[in-house]
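Write out the 3D structure for:
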Amino acid sequence: MLALIIGNLILSDLSASILAFFSFLFIASFLITSIKNDTAGMMNWIFNKTNQTSKK
């Protein structure tokens, strides 16, 4: 059902399932990390630091 054929690459159902599972796990961990980090604070720090160096 999940077998995947791309060019000469042929993945069995088990391999495709494992690949899908770990892909989902990677994306979920990336999203959780992004949500928990202070991205707005980081962006302010980067842009304020750039503005301060350009004013000198």
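Helices lie at 13-36, 39-55.
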